[in-house]
Every structure is written in structure tokens, then in C-alpha cells.
Amino acid sequence: MMITRVFSNLIYVASMILFLIGFYAVALRPNLIKKIIGINIMETSIFLFLIGIGNRKGGAAPLIVDGVKNYVNPLPQAVVLMALVVGVGTTALALILAVKLFEREEEEQL
Amino acid sequence: MSIVYHLPILITVAPLAVAVLLSILLNLNRRVVYPLSLLTMFFCFVSAIFVALGVLKGGAFVYYMSNWPPPWGIELLIDNITAFILLLITFVGFFVFIFSKPYVKKELEKEKAPFYYILTLLLLGSMTGFVISGDIFNMFIFFEILSLSSYSLVAIAGDKEALRAGFKYLVMGVISSLFVLLGLGFIYSVTGTLNVSQIASWVRSSSDLTVVYTGALFLIVAFVIEAALFPMHIWLPQAHGKAPAPVSAVLSGLVIGVGVVGIIKVIYYILPIVYSAEFIILFRVLATIGIVFGAIFALFESDLKVLLAQSSISQIGFAAIGVFLFSYLGLAGSMLQILNHALAKSALFFGAGAIIYRTGFRKLDEMRGIGKKMPITMGFFAISLASIAGIPMTCGFASKYYLCFAAIRQGLWGMVGAILLGSFLSILYCIRIINCIFFEEPESEAEVLEAPLEMLIPLGVLSLFSLLFGLFPKMAFVLIEPGVKELLVLLR
């Protein structure tokens, strides 16, 4: 019962595990670059979750084609697309901050 | 409808568009950046006045972007509360720009100054967008622009501590915005729409609400992080303490207030059934604890700006309590507190900025007797301090009085005790500052000039307004009362 339930919702379980992995890296790793990677893993897990919501079994891409009735929901995909762009911006800023911090630390050690 | 109908979107788009335009123009001429951004903020402020008047007269309205009705198009929701918040943001934002000129010239490197103005424009524009947007996804996008520009502004000074504060803020902020996305996904998965009013009507007519509650929990936690309520406040003291003073004024006065507006949006607009859920009590308790803890942290802080930031945690706790009480008195107190905090805390950061501008002092010990050297600046500073402490005849007193009364009405005696204790502790830390800057002997005899006029005017206007709203609370009620009544209607 439990097992079948997990397997039928595998995409959500996977996204939850990914989220926790990312959260572990963000919260407990002192290394800034690893924190940034953790942020990215968390982001990806949520994208997976959103795509999973919009998914339909055997659904085609949401384009109007004759004879195709079963589409996946395009809206979560659009949301993910926007969120991806935002995520790139956040990662870029985080990396800049990390690099600048590294430079300042080096200056102090010299 | 008249031009008022189109003004709200202009208030949001104008700063964002000018910011993009300026980032191109600054390659040609740097001088154009400051006047243009000041002009934009002034335009936004005037438009916000018209919007507030229009809404007061004609009632709330929705605006469809390019006339596309939802669920296809973007919807903007403008009612009395949003009009009031818009007015507050643009008013304080305008004075932030006036204050910034001399401060930025002295404290930041020359190459960074135009970027500072551009980022501040982005921050203020996205805040207004966040407040008026009528679907969750738009809220998420504006929330992201808001967060990204505020991380950059915190770190803009470029020294090690500022960078570290910026990074810490970024990590917390990213988690908060990811929670928004997650909550949005949960809500979309059952309601099938992202539009605020459509979700609200779906929620009212449906029986199985487990998934919606989960989504609501994520959204509320996200905005709790942004508003820096008690357990999620750890990023705030550093970020607000290390940022340039005018930026601290925006972050402390407006951004965390907008976080509380986000919580209001979730509870009252998007999911008007959430107030009956058990987990609301948890947030109520946490906000109550935050009031006391923030004040205790502030009591033992030695850096003036960090102290003010710590006190923000306590003050925003007051604002959040009223939101979680779901009563007229509570909401009115909460709105008054947002108003008071935006005016007084911004003025206080302006004052701290003026001290830094003239002397470079940051620690409270260094500032002994500075009130005798710059009496006008510190006089205004003291008025705002009184408003934060909640001395009678200031706006802060009115808000705390209402909140306390609301808690008594509902028989929440623990909360009453916390409000009284929190107010008492706020008075203590304010007295500590006043004692230090006015009544102790200065260490050196060096002359200190008054703050320049560009700094004195914003400080004076904001602090006098917080005094004015305290002396005549009726004036403040003209602004907030219709909005509070509308919010309570939404809950039914």
C-alpha cells in the first residue's frame, strides 16, 4: 500500500529528497560555493515539483496539433521558465558576493 | 474610468523602466542618474496621492493589464489598504532619494553612486508592484526583484562585513522566495489558477483544504522570513546594520513592512479561510515572543544602527500580532504600527546616517553628548525615538494602545503581558540612547556641524509626521480605516 503510493508519486518524493539535500548544503556546509550549489539544488527540486504538477500521463507538448487531445498543463512550465531566469540572476549575484568575499579575505591575509 | 485607473501600474512600471533606462544612459552621462530617479520618485508619490484619493472616493477596483481578463491576463488589485501602502512606500522612498545625495557622495565610491540609485529605484518599484499585484505568480516575480536589489544594496559598500551580511541575507531570502514558489505550486495544483480572487472563491466553496493549508503554510513562512518575525530574524541585524544608512531606512522602514503586507495578502486576500486553521496560533505566539526578544537584543547592543535594526524585529512583531488577531482593533493597530514604523524608523536611520556623515561614529559610546553639538538633527531624532518607544502623543503610542486593547478584548492575557513588556523594554532602550546622546558629557571638544539641509529635511518631515499622526490619530484613521474595514469584509 505504502510502497505503491510512493511509486505512483515518485516525482514528488524525488523533489522532496532533492530539496532536503539542497537544504542540508545551505544550512550546514560552511563553504560558500557549496551553499550556492545547495541553493541551486533546492531550486531544481521545486522546478521538478512544479513540472510534476502540470504533468499528465502520456501527455503531449502543449501545442495545438490535429488529433492530439491529451496535453500537459503549460502554465507550470511557464512558471518554471520565469523562475529559472530569476534563479540564474540569484546565482550570479551569490557567486559575485562569494568571489568578492574571497578577495577581501586574501587581502587581509597578505 | 479616469486616469486614476491607469496610475497604479505606472507607479510600478515607471521606476522599473527608468532603472533600466538609466543603466544604459549612465554610460553617456552619469550626472543624469540622480535627477531622473528623484523625478521618477516624485511622480510616483504624486500618482500615489491621486490613487489614494480615487480609491477613497470611488472604492476598490481591479485593473487588467492590456485589457486581458484573468486567468489569461495579469490582474492588479487596488483597494484602500494597497493605496495606503503605496502612498507610504512612495512618500518614504522620495525622501530616501533626497537624503541619499550627500550621504552617497561621501560614503560610497564614485563609480558605485549611479548603481546605488538604480538599485534603489528597482527596490522601491518592485515593492509597489508586490503590493498591487493580483496574482501570486506576479507577487513572486516582484518579490524576487525586491530581494535581489536589496541583497545588492546591503553589500554595495563592498567591505568584508557588508559582503558577509549581504550573503547571509541572500541565503535567507532565497529560501524565502523558494518557499513562495513551493506554496504557489501547492495552491495551483488544487485550485488550477494563480489569480488571487479566483483562488479565494475556490477556497470558499471547497471542502477538502489540506493541500491549500500546506500551500498557505509555505507562503506565510516565506513572508515571515521576509518580515523578519522572531525565529527568522537572524539575518536582519547584520543586513540592516551594515547597509548604507538610507538603504537601512528603506529596508527597515518599508521592506519588512511589505513582508507583513505579504502575510496580510495570504491570509485575507488569497486564502480567507486560513484564519480558522490551528497553525495560525503558532505564528501568533512567535510574533509575541519576537516583541520581547527583539527589544532585549536591542537593550544590549552597542552599535547604533544595529540597535535600531534589533528594535525593528520587536516593532514588526507588533505589526504582525494585529494581523493574526483578525479583529478591527488588531488590524487598525497593525496598520498604525506599519505607518509609525515606516515613518519613525526611517527617520531614525536618517539620523544615524547624519551622525555617520558628520563624524563617522557608529558606536553609541562614541556619540556621547552629540545632541549638544547638533541639536536640531538630534531633536528630530529624539521625536522619532519617542514614537518608536510609544510615548503618549506619538503615533507609536496609538498603535500599541490599539493592539493592547485588541488583545484584552479577545482575552489573550499572555499577549497583553508581552505587549506591555515589549513597550516597556522599548522605552528602556530609547531612554538609553537619549541619555547617551543628550545627557552625557562629550569626550572631545571638536566642533560638529548640523547635518546638511538635504539630510535635515527628510529627517524632519518624517519625524514630524509621526508626531502629527500621534497628536491627531483621526488623520491616520482617514488613511487606514476604510482599508481595515475592507479587509474584515474579505474574511466573511
When the domains of chain A are counted, the total is 1
Give the proportion of residues in helices of chain B.
over 70%
Instruction: Give the tally of β-strands of chain B.
Output: 2
Biggest β-sheet strands, sense, barrel of chain A: none
Distance between the termini of chain A: 63 Å
User: How would you characterize the largest beta sheet of chain B?
Assistant: 2 strands, antiparallel
Structural category of chain B: mainly alpha
Helix/strand/pairing category of chain A: mainly alpha
Q: For the CA atoms, what is the radius of gyration of chain A?
A: 19 Å
Under the CATH scheme, the architecture of chain A is: Orthogonal Bundle
Please tell me what the overall shape of chain A is: elongated
Distance between the termini of chain B: 29 Å
Biggest chain-to-chain interface with counts: A-B, 28 and 28 residues
From the 3D structure, determine the CATH topology of chain A: Helix Hairpins
Uncertain regions spanning at least 5 consecutive residues of chain B: none
Number of helices of chain A: 4
In terms of DSSP E residues, the strand content of chain B is under 5%
The residue fraction in helices of chain A comes out at: over 70%
What quaternary form is this?
heterodimer
Q: Rg of chain B from C-alpha positions?
A: 21 Å
User: What is the CATH C-level name of chain A?
Assistant: Mainly Alpha
Protein architecture, described:
- The complex is a heterodimer of chains A (110) and B (492).
- Chain A is mostly helical.
- Chain A has one domain (2-56, 70-105): Orthogonal Bundle (Helix Hairpins), CATH 1.10.287.
- Helices cover 77% and strands 0% of the residues of chain A.
- Chain A contains four helices and no strands.
- Chain A is elongated.
- Chain B has 492 residues and is mainly α.
- Chain B has a domain at 278-492.
- Chain B has 19 helices and two strands.
- Chain B has helices spanning 7-25, 33-58, 80-107, 113-132, 136-154, 160-191, 196-205, 210-227, 236-242, 245-270, 279-299, 304-325, 328-359, 370-373, 375-389, 395-409, 413-439, 453-471, 473-491; strands spanning 61-64, 75-78.
- A two-stranded antiparallel ribbon of chain B has the order 1-2.
- Chain B starts with 6 loop residues before the first helix and ends with a helix.
- The mean pLDDT of chain B is 89.
- Classes of the chains: A mainly alpha (110), B mainly alpha (492).
- The A-B interface holds A 23, 26, 32, 35, 39, 42-43, 46, 49-50, 53, 75-76, 79, 82-83, 86, 89-90, 93-94, 97-98, 100-101, 104-105, 108 and B 137, 140-141, 144, 148, 151-152, 155, 158-160, 163-164, 166-167, 170-171, 174-175, 177-178, 181-182, 184-185, 188-189, 194.
